[in-house]
UniProtKB/TrEMBL annotation:
InterPro entries: ATPase_NBD, ROK, ROK_cs. Gene3D superfamilies: 3.30.420.40. PROSITE patterns: ROK. It comes from Streptomyces finlayi. Belongs to the ROK (NagC/XylR) family. The lineage of its organism: Bacteria, Bacillati, Actinomycetota, Actinomycetes, Kitasatosporales. This is ROK family protein. It holds the Pfam family ROK.
Length: 330
């Protein structure tokens, strides 16, 4: 049997998604379950097991040569464990061992969800064709990942590129991570909304006080809402410029719910980047919205499996396994 597919899992605080993915990034078989995040470690693993069982029931399963997992973090790829902030029952949970067992010995590659999004955008999305890229997920938190020298750079534990916890305000607010003035503490959706409310912004008649509602007010000209997004954009620009200066990044791709604000976010972000990315080798830095959408986690997990070196090495690998997909996956 040719092993010309990979299996993928995207594990978050609200859903666990799975797919069988081909070398062009097409999701051929899908499965999904809600995440029972408050119900304990084994309940969550049970949902993962249900997703895997549904994938294994497909006639295409035998063609899978590896499993890629993108998980909410922190993750520790070196230990094969996960401790997602939004899944309290999993602390140091041995996810790689458990998934290896549940798949009958399929080789498993674990990365954080920000790195997974990065892998997807580099393979098929806005960062395609760029050898050095930073991709960000700006949502409830701020995560990210790096492509360096044309290859995904997850780092030893799978967390490299976690821009959300770069300090951009030395005496800023205390972040839940324990540091002060982190990008996430300023630019995440909940903090955009918090800052607007603190400044006197009032939600509309529907009571919606999310960052998306703040963005709608900003588009309508509300000065407090505009100021909150400007502050978020400034924090993101400072973090992106610092990363670009350190690693010579060519493009920063921004996804996640906050990126849905469009030019409310991107216009001030580009303006602030001119203030922070001042050295000659970062002045051409591009900023672009992500394009992979809700499938980014699965596509990115699959990309990590394709490029990891473990693909096709498991117990069921056939001698006829085809090569790693061409193109942006290198």
């Amino acid at each position: 049997m040719h092993t010309d597919l990979v299996a993928a899992l995207d594990i978050g605080g609200t859903k666990i998604a799975g797919a069988l993915v081909d070398g062009d990034g097409a999701l051929l078989v899908r499965a999904q379950r809600p995440t029972p995040a408050r119900d304990g470690a084994e309940a969550v693993m049970g949902a993962v097991g249900d997703v895997l069982a549904e994938l294994r029931a497909s006639s295409l399963w035998a063609r899978a040569g590896a499993m890629g997992i993108g998980s909410a973090g922190p993750v520790d790829a070196s230990a094969g464990t996960v401790s997602p902030v939004n899944v309290p029952g999993w602390r140091g949970f041995p996810l790689v061992d458990r998934v290896t067992e549940a798949t009958g010995g399929l080789p498993v590659v674990l990365i954080g969800d920000g790195v997974a999004m990065t892998a997807a955008e580099h393979w098929l999305g806005a960062a395609r064709g760029y050898d050095n890229a930073l991709c960000l997920v700006v949502s409830t938190g701020v995560g990210g990942g790096l492509v360096l020298g044309g290859k995904l750079h997850p780092g030893p534990t799978g967390n490299a590129g976690h821009i959300g916890h770069i300090c951009v305000d030395l005496d800023g607010d205390l972040c839940p991570c324990g540091a002060r003035g982190c990008v996430e503490r300023i630019a995440s959706g909940p903090n955009i909304a918090r800052r607007a409310l603190d400044g006197g912004w009032l939600p509309g008649p529907d009571g919606d006080s999310t960052a998306a509602s703040v963005a709608a007010s900003a588009r309508a000209g509300d000065l407090v809402a505009i100021a909150s997004y400007e502050r978020a954009a400034q924090a993101l620009a400072a973090g992106i410029a610092a990363t670009a200066t350190l690693a010579e990044i060519d493009i920063a791709v921004i996804g996640g719910g906050v990126a849905g604000a469009g030019e409310v976010l991107f216009a001030p972000l580009r303006r602030f980047l001119r203030d922070y990315a001042t050295l000659s080798f970062v002045q051409q830095l591009r900023v672009a919205p992500a394009v992979m959408g809700t499938d980014a986690g699965l596509v990115g997990a699959a990309a990590a499996a394709w490029t990891s070196g473990v693909w096709g090495t498991g117990a069921g690998a056939g001698a006829g396994a085809k090569g790693v997909p061409a193109g942006a996956l290198r």
